[in-house]
Write a structure and sequence with these properties.
The protein is mostly beta strands. Among the domains are: 86 residues; 108 residues, no CATH class; 301 residues, Methylamine Dehydrogenase, Chain H, CATH 2.130.10. The strands form 21 sheets. Strands 10-11-12-13-17 form a five-stranded mixed beta sheet, with no helix packed on it. Strand 85 and strand 86 form a beta hairpin. Belongs to the WD repeat WDR6 family. It holds the Pfam family WD40.
Length: 1169
């Protein structure tokens, strides 16, 4: 059997998007074009069907769906075009695609395609019009297996175009073509429908332009017609959208027949995006215009306004939720707006909420109902006199007069419809939001303000006296528990908790007891145990017990408290952004003695308040603050011996900076694993889906200086805030109450997100190397990109669609600090241990190391678990301060260019990751990271050895291999001058291992290259691939290294080594020989891979070359090209592969990710599909 390419798939930017409503009322459908594939998707059930439209690397640039049904069966006709080709399909009601005909290749690229009404008596199934880049339109009749041109219309001004949009006016029998020319103008020309009026023209007909729209200062990237054809919108890279009127042309038949071209300016100029505009779309009534931009936002504008005014006053709303190089395509159908972009995600938004400029709450969640309520406090009960202002601060907004009028101090949402409100005059109310009913629960006998409240639902179930308790703290330091049930309520326990104001109450989350923390204004924290179970059972009341107390060393108010049972630490965060932890020693701790402070991280959130702290139960702690940052920490146990002093440490293992939210207030983790954060941005409160990276709720509330509360659960979401002494509540409830959709009710993503920017490095590995069992997806792909993210994706053959892979799972391994772009990745693992380490290097000399392993727990079996091990930042910080230095002493902002690693297992609990790293200053050095797997602690050894005397130019590529059985390690480096150096790092590595075993300090060693191969390439060596084989009995090594460069050449070299006697494990080079192929690619060669026999290479020509490395009859090393395959990922610059018997799994990355499966055999060359 001949070898062949078995299957391929593409993950990346969406280049075509069209939405339509099913004729049978079955909801809205989507057609998504990505790479050379079209995916049809039902937006309700998310059922998908894939079909490959183009091969040979061609991409789908546009899709159109017919308005009429195909054959009366509820289906439609669909046309997809890309470059000079188009294909017409019949799309049946079951979402199956059947190809009718192929059109092309045409003389020019296709810019637009639309369906036209068929001519009377025509035997064609459908008629299409194709707009070409030379400002012409070709009309084609399509039948079953046939495509016949029935007319070609050419504008007399034959300019090259950036964009074209065609509109068919069936009532007039005319077709309007709008063309965005290279001269930044829009030409509108008109021609009659072919066959209209008895005409059936097949010759070329010249048409004169009727209108010339001018005003844009940049390339016109997209055009859009209104539903009636009276208006035209254009968007440009000058960051503006313009609306043009065709009313004069539509109403004047003489003007349409005239050969004169009228020059007009825009009716409306829209400016407000921060970058170029990629797409635009009119609403159904043409009252609004939606624009999509490179700034990753979609904006809604009023389309009819004052003439030629550049203003943002007509902005209705802004949608955020994409990342990378912007939102590229938008479509609308069935009351929804769909957006897609460079990140590969397709998201759905409810137009009803987006197009309501007067609404208080907007949401992107199409599966949610939105309701708004306004509540006013009830009047004070009789006998409750005004205490005046003693001990109370003035109300927010304006000072209250000494009267019986009350105002809200704090509020708490306990569900979608239940709210508790505490007031300045000591009243506590329960409010049912929908019914606007109020119930008075408690009146403070001291007539003092209640400063904080919390809802406690006791563990152990519901009791006979109450369902739950409301914990309240007042200005005099009293802690009151109010028992609440449906029929009765009243105070249950009350005690003097603090001498000063009781400012906060926090419930324990990880203890079997009913515990609560209270804080005062001076930074004192007390830990109480409340016997709620006895109370609920109707037993005799017991007094609360003080379990422990703590005090902040800064005497600042504590805003977040939680107990980490795994490490027995009480974690606190204060109003100045500091994080601290106190050691709890169990029952031996005296409640009167303050706990010992064991961890202190001052101003971790700068000087912004810590808004919340969460302990996740496995030594992990999460904090959020007013600086817009989420930190994840891991508690590192102390290494002290029994009886010796020592301290734990909080090791930062993750950071998330949310640019859309200035001050984070809350974090919510839903049952489906999605994470949401809520916080303030200017005068709005936002809820952001961190998992899908999109905004889901936006509420205009006036800013953060007001009482507010957020609730999110499976039954919906609510947000309450006080404005102008009125409580405003916004509720969101799922439209479908079925259990299957409750977890996804807060989601609007139809497809997952991916990198939105160029991918610089990729690694593909078999999942069995990470401990995944049989039946698992065969390959895991790791990618690092310019957006600073390191992501993973799992792939397996798609049984439903022949020739395709299926994306099983994807996610984020981590994000580089400060968003530093990832330049190079390395994957290393030990053959005796499950899991592996992923190392990322790039801008700002940042080095980050993660550990990845498949989770074997019963709850999350098969899920990839990613843990940040350590981060290494430059000595001067990520953004060092400017210094006045002389020109010769100036140091540029360095970056790492390449990395390769291997792991040395010291013992059962310690790993050492050796890293060979090159920097932009032409330095190459070996560093080591020591990892204690038991405690998670790490230690960096910055200089194991320096590689000197190699090249004075920066090193672009590195390959490093250790032969552990022989105690040797060799490396190859390629630099910008085209040279390749061979290095023996054995002595330095073995010296470090010996020093580590003895507990001694290691002295940095400088090593010189074994040999420098000059002039291998005419310019930079962009990539190296290395395969080393060892003959242990003979003490010999053979290395085959393959290189690719900017000179388009592919070079292979075979180097033989002899292992030297002695403990150093060094090697000596005995021979070398090479093979060279000039002009191996049509453009710069960016990445290579080899297993010693086959060589894979790729470059900017978007081609994958497969070659064979062998000895000919004269024992001369040769490279033979076997096959050249097209790649869908644009600007390909990263390649990785692995062999599984005769199957080779290949990952190619650039602007997107291509996955291929190729059958390789030494008996013959691979063949394309």
């Amino acid at each position: 059997m001949d070898p062949t390419e078995r299957r391929r798939s593409y993950l990346g930017d969406v280049t075509a998007l069209v939405a339509y409503s099913a004729a049978s009322g079955g909801g809205s459908r989507l057609c998504i074009g990505s790479g050379g594939v079209i995916t049809t998707c039902h937006t309700g059930t998310l059922e998908r069907t894939k079909v490959r439209v183009f091969g040979n690397g061609a991409r789908v640039h546009g899709v159109a769906v017919s308005e009429e049904e195909a054959g009366g069966g509820g289906g439609r006709y669909l046309i997809a075009h890309g470059e000079q080709y188009a294909k017409v399909y019949r799309l049946d009601a079951g979402e199956e695609l059947f190809c009718l005909a192929r059109i092309g290749p045409l003389a020019h690229w296709i810019m637009d395609a639309v369906f036209l009404p068929r001519a009377a008596g025509s035997g064609a199934l459908v008629r299409v019009a194709l707009g070409l880049s030379d400002n012409s339109v070709v009309v084609v009749d399509v039948g079953e297996g046939s495509a016949e041109t029935c007319g070609k219309f050419v504008c007399s001004r034959s300019y090259l175009l950036y964009s074209m949009k065609i509109f068919c006016s069936r009532g007039e029998g005319l077709v309007y073509a709008a063309a965005g020319t290279i001269f930044n103008s829009v030409l509108v020309w008109v021609f009659p429908l072919p066959g209209a009026g008895g005409r059936q023209d097949k010759e070329v007909i010249s048409c004169f332009p009727r209108l010339n729209f001018v005003g844009h200062q940049g390339s016109i990237l997209k055009l859009c017609w209104s539903g009636s054809g009276d208006m035209l919108a254009s968007c440009s890279d000058d960051r503006t959208a313009r609306v043009w009127s065709l009313a004069s042309l539509k109403m004047d038949a003489a003007k349409r027949a005239s050969k004169e071209c009228e020059t007009l300016e825009a009716e409306k100029v829209i400016y407000g995006h921060g970058s170029r505009l990629w797409d635009c779309l009119f609403s159904g009534d043409s009252e609004m215009l939606v624009t999509a931009s490179e700034d990753c936002t979609c904006k809604f504008w009023l389309s009819k306004a004052r003439k030629c005014e550049t203003d943002t006053s007509d902005l209705v709303t802004t949608l955020c939720g994409h990342q990378g190089r912007g939102v590229w395509r938008i479509a609308a159908a069935g009351g929804y707006l769909f957006t897609a972009g460079a990140d590969g995600a397709v998201k759905r938004w409810l137009l009803q909420h987006c197009c309501n400029p007067s609404g208080i709450a907007t949401t992107s969640l199409p599966s949610m109902h939105v309701r708004s309520f306004q509540q006013a406090l009830p009047p004070l009960p009789r006998g409750h006199k005004d205490p005046g202002t003693a001990g109370a601060s003035s109300a927010p907004g304006k000072k209250e007069e000494k009267s019986a009028k009350d105002w809200v101090r704090c509020l708490k949402l306990a569900g979608v419809d239940t709210m508790y409100v505490a007031t300045n005059q000591g009243m506590l109310y329960e409010n049912s939001v929908r019914s606007s009913s109020w119930r008075s629960l408690f009146a403070n006998p001291r007539r003092m303000p209640l400063l904080c409240i919390e809802v406690m639902r006791p563990r152990g179930g519901r009791g006979v006296l109450s369902d739950h308790f409301i914990c309240a703290g007042d200005v005099n330091g009293y802690f009151t528990m109010i028992a609440v049930s449906k029929t009765c309520c009243g105070p249950w326990l009350e005690w003097k908790a603090h001498e000063k104001r009781l400012m906060g109450i926090f419930l324990g989350r990880q203890d079997e007891e009913n515990q609560v923390f209270s804080t005062d204004v001076s930074g004192e924290v007390k830990w109480w145990i409340v016997p709620c179970k006895d109370m609920l059972d109707g037993k005799v009341k017991q007094e609360p017990a003080l379990k422990a107390k703590m005090r902040s060393p800064f005497k600042m108010r504590i805003l977040g408290v939680d107990f980490c049972r795994a490490s027995m630490l009480v974690i606190c965060g204060d109003k100045n952004g500091s994080i601290m932890a106190f050691r709890y020693h169990g029952g031996s701790t005296s409640s009167e003695e303050p706990l010992d402070l064991t961890i202190l991280m001052q101003h971790k959130h700068n000087v912004s308040p810590v808004s919340f702290l969460r302990s996740r139960g496995n030594d992990e702690v999460v904090s959020g603050g007013g600086d817009g940052k989420l930190y994840t920490y891991k508690v590192i146990p102390s290494s002290r011996k029994e009886g010796e002093p020592g301290h734990e440490a909080l090791c930062q293992v993750g950071i998330h900076i949310e640019k859309r939210i200035a001050a984070i207030e809350e974090q919510v983790e839903m049952g489906d694993g999605a994470t949401y954060i809520g916080g303030f941005q200017s005068s709005d409160f936002l809820v952001w889906n961190v998992t899908e990276n999109c905004e889901v709720i936006k509420i205009s509330c006036g800013g953060w200086k007001r009482p507010h509360s957020l609730y999110m659960g499976e039954e919906g979401a609510s947000f309450a805030h006080v404005r102008d002494h009125v409580i405003h509540v916004q509720q969101l409830e799922p439209r479908d109450k079925s259990a299957q959709v409750l977890h996804s009710a807060f989601s609007n993503a139809l497809t997952p997100s991916f990198h939105g920017q160029e991918i610089h490095s990729t690694i593909i590995v078999p999942t069995r190397c990470l401990g995944k069992g049989d039946g698992a997806p065969p390959c895991l792909v790791i990618t690092g990109a310019e957006d600073g993210y390191v992501r993973y994706s799992e792939w397996e053959p798609d049984c439903a669609t022949a020739g395709h892979f299926k994306l099983c799972a994807s996610g984020i391994i981590g994000e580089c600090v400060a968003g530093a772009q990832v330049r190079s990745l390395s994957y290393s693992g030990h053959k005796e241990a499950q899991g592996a380490y992923v190392t990322a290097v790039g801008a700002k000399e940042v080095v980050m190391v993660w550990k990845i392993v498949y989770n074997s727990s019963s709850e999350e079996e098969g899920c990839l678990q990613c843990e940040l091990i350590s981060t290494k930042e430059p000595k001067g910080g990520l953004r060092p301060k400017m210094k006045k230095v002389s020109a010769k002493d100036q140091v540029t902002d360095l970056r790492h260019l390449a990395v390769d690693t291997f792991v040395y297992k010291v013992d059962g609990s310690t790993d050492v990751i050796f890293m060979l790293v090159s920097s932009a200053d032409a330095s190459v050095k070996v560093t080591a990271l020591q990892v204690d797997r038991r405690t998670g602690s790490t230690k960096w050894h910055n200089k194991v050895c320096d590689l000197v005397n190699g090249s004075r130019n920066p090193t672009l590529s590195i390959r490093w291999k250790e032969i552990e059985s022989l105690g040797t390690s060799v490396a190859f480096t390629g630099s910008t001058d085209g040279a390749i150096c061979c290095w023996d790092t054995s002595m330095a590595i073995n010296s470090f291992k010996n020093a580590l075993a003895k507990g001694e300090d290691h002295q940095c060693i400088e090593i010189s290259p074994l040999k420098k191969f000059q002039g291998v390439h005419a310019s930079g060596v962009n990539s190296l691939a290395l395969k080393v084989s060892a003959s242990e009995g003979l003490g010999q090594l053979q290395a085959r290294v393959v290189s690719g460069g900017d000179d388009q050449a592919l070079h292979a070299k075979e180097v033989r080594f002899r292992v030297l006697d002695g403990s150093s494990g060094g090697v000596a080079m005995t021979s070398d020989r090479g093979a060279h192929v000039a002009n191996s690619h049509y453009s710069a060669l960016r990445s290579v891979w080899t297993d010693g026999t086959f060589v894979l290479s790729t470059g900017l020509d978007q081609r994958l070359n497969i070659s064979r490395l062998f000895d000919d009859e004269k024992q001369v090393l040769r490279l033979e090209l076997l096959s050249r395959m097209a790649v869908e990922a644009g600007e390909t610059e990263a390649l990785s592969a692995f062999m599984d018997e005769d199957l080779c799994y290949v990952a190619l990355a650039g602007r997107g990710l291509s996955i291929m499966q190729v059958a390789l055999s030494s008996r013959g060359p691979p063949k394309n599909l």
